[in-house]
User: Fold this.
Amino acid sequence: MVLLSGIDTISHIYAMEEKGKTIAVLGSGFEHIYPKENTYLYHQILQNGGCILSENPPEAEVKKSYFPKRNRIISGLAMGVLVVEAAYRSGSTITAKYAMGQGKQVFCIPNQLGIATGYSTNLLIQNGANLVMEPEDIFAFYEMEEEVDLKVEEEYQSIYDFIGELPISINELARLTKTTIQETMQIITMLELQGFIQDVGGGRYAKKEKK
Assistant:
């Protein structure tokens, strides 16, 4: 993983919240964390028992040329590489190409045509990368069972409790829980992203069956 704002930072944080240990690879020396706002995350990874790597001397400042070179270490450390978004000739694309050259598996989340940040994910899939629609796709590839027993966050529980096997609309959920439509939609979005519920069409949602 890389210490950058965005999906990389989120991956580190959520992994550590689930008692995981992460590895970060810098495109600079240890004395120059980039971006600076991730200095706190840098220390959190170490305090959590993780690891920070850099092939540059500690005093090496941030240079654009360091990042593509650094990506071969990221792919080399991984069992496989999941590309969430990737613009044309982006760093994620470079990492994916390194992974393929190292004999590692590349997984991609497909994107809409015409979306710049999704161009390379679609191209990688077209060239043989594994299409991923849910986390279980990766577990299944490696013949692994998901060990983490995810729990609904407390702030989402009141709405989740009203969602059953039978579909229910957002309007009905808002009425039952005495929340605004906007608040309900935000929580519904998070529950769907986390795999607890599914959209069954017509603006209605139901609990997702466990596999």
Observations:
- Residues 1-63 form one domain.
